[in-house]
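Many introductory courses stop at the sequence. We go one step further.
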Amino acid sequence: MAGIVRGVADMADTLGIAGRDALKGFATQIKISTHGLSDSDAQEAIQAGFTQLSDELARMILAAGEGVSGNLSAFTSAFARRGESASETLTRLSSALATANAWLDRLGKTAYDTSLAGADAASKWAGAFGGLEAMSEAVSSYYAGFYSPAERLAQAREELSQALAGLGIDALPGSRQAFRQLIDAAFASGDSDLAAKLIQLAPAMAEITDQAQALTAALKDLDTQSLYRSGAEALYAATSEGHRRRLTGTDATVQGLLAEVVRAIREGDINNARLTARLLAVQERMSLDPAR
């Protein structure tokens, strides 16, 4: 029962409703008889009792959010869908708001209000995709395909930093080893709950370090690419005539390509940076050709 109450209160907090305050003084009576029932029927009877409890708690939360008080036995939320129970309505709204706002934050867009009305809008937005799961899949695909690796890495670091801050850890570990040391320290201090929560965040930390290493390696590889096909070309570029041509003969095409390389590096678009660097190398070689 305590777990059900905590779960409902957490959903209320997601919606901006002071769930624990709304549930103060809550009391109910639920009679469950399993006498003469088979094991499966007895389990169904127990589950029905828990469902009744969940509905009563959810009804109180929804009523509090809508400013309704008094006898709530006949109360139906204005945000309920046809055939929904109170607990189903509360679950749908809190899940929609939490999921939609998490994705909107990653996309850098304005989040829905933390309220029942905001949750209803989030639920309708999810409906435009065909449901919450379909929304997550579609937005995830868009995020992966249209946001640069550097943008996604920065967002992942921010999300993990916030999660760690919620556990009382102010600084994001700089490596896998440092993160492991945090977990080891939690175990050593006897704080198994903290260790468990950190372990749950381990996949996010691993992804961040993998992305950072890949980006660093790609940038290093890009930096070492030569503009010249041979030592003779590099030697010519080092002459005063070569420098003169490089400085005064650079046309708009070269300048544009160079600007694109810089932009791609800043945004972490390594594949585009590599391609543009190769095009720039060709154009540079042409500008340094003594026969021109």
